[in-house]
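job 3f2a | input accepted
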Amino acid sequence: MARKELPDVPLDDRQRARLRYVAETSCAGLQVLVTRDPALAALADIAWDVARVKVVSPAVVTLHVDELRQAQVYRPADLMGTAFSAEEIAPGGEGELVAFFEQAEGDRGMAFAQRLKSLANDGVLWRRELLRDGEGHPVALYVWAMDGRTLNVAFLRTPSHRLEGTLARQLLFMLKRLGRERGAQAVRITDPFLSSTAMTAAGADGFTEDESGFTALLVDVCGPAEAVSQTAAEIAGRMRRSAPRLNACVSPEIASVAERVWWPAKLTDTALPSFIAPIKPRWSTELFDVPAMLVPRDDVLGISREHVYYRSSGHRGERVPARILWYVSEGTSGQQGKMVIGCSRLDEVVIDDPDTLFSRFEHLGVYGHAEVRAAADVSGKATALRFSDTEIFPVQVTHARVTALAKELGLRWVPPMQLSKISNELFQAMYEEGHRKT
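job 3f2a | predicted structure (438 res):
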């Protein structure tokens, strides 16, 4: 990383002492420095440019305690293990983004830059995030802030790019995950200049449109359909909206749609089936970045919300829609194996000859042509399982813990050697364990 040079400004001993406060804040791993000293506040641009430390007044702290607390635990990072990276927009950096993200009349040139800049000074602690590709080019922009239990998104932009549609869908999923992490019950996008690509992606992802923008509910309940829909109705009611009431009799198709629209909701008493699939660390690393890779993943694979898993064509009772848990079946050097790492939505099961499967799903899988061919059985056919919206558990559920959970339910747990159906009760137990507060 290149060394940042100190801006050429006159500094006396007192100002240098104030800069030491900034340096100490940065070295402590913090991003916010609170002060009543106007001379220190005058160094805010330097503090940000050199050390990425926000210098703010006590009034801001009083108004935005929760947002500032979240800022301390947030760190820009690589995106899904790819060469894409996230960073905050530096003050004064709005102008360079005009060519990438301006949209329509009323949102061009200085109008766009000024609106983006105004969010840094309007009394709300907006987080202005920028995604860059591996070559450093801006590929997505989103600006968000918490308003009670709602994550508000004032900007959501993707420029013309070969992955624009994929990026838009990934951004929406990122915002839902972000909202969930911060206890939000809804994500509301108020950007009046959303692209047609972003609007299409939002509609497909369960966002509903009204005069204020696009809104999606976040129903963080894993349980019976009635409990999930009751929580959804309560959240919707507080937002002066409505939500359908569901029960255990709904079809798997409706249950799956509900889980997508109300993500991260899980309806555990419906006919929507649950499966568990073993996966070797080599493939889980490339598909899910678990264990984390030392080099960036393929951009198309990493940024996509859809992936493919191959196996032989023998019938395992799988059907769609369904849920699927991922079980890392062995360990690697220095890594613990035999654990459940996350879950996905199973969208499609395709049985065909390996060449056809590889041609169709190459961009969504990590198998090479030879591996897909090797997955075929004596019939010459292989199976591709297309799945989406993988949710990596904050807590990895070890083999020993799964065994204990199964025993509590009166079940016998045998590590899966192949894709296997499990009870929804065991799915719920493992899912809740994966999200256990540590």
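job 3f2a | The radius of gyration is 24 Å.
job 3f2a | closed
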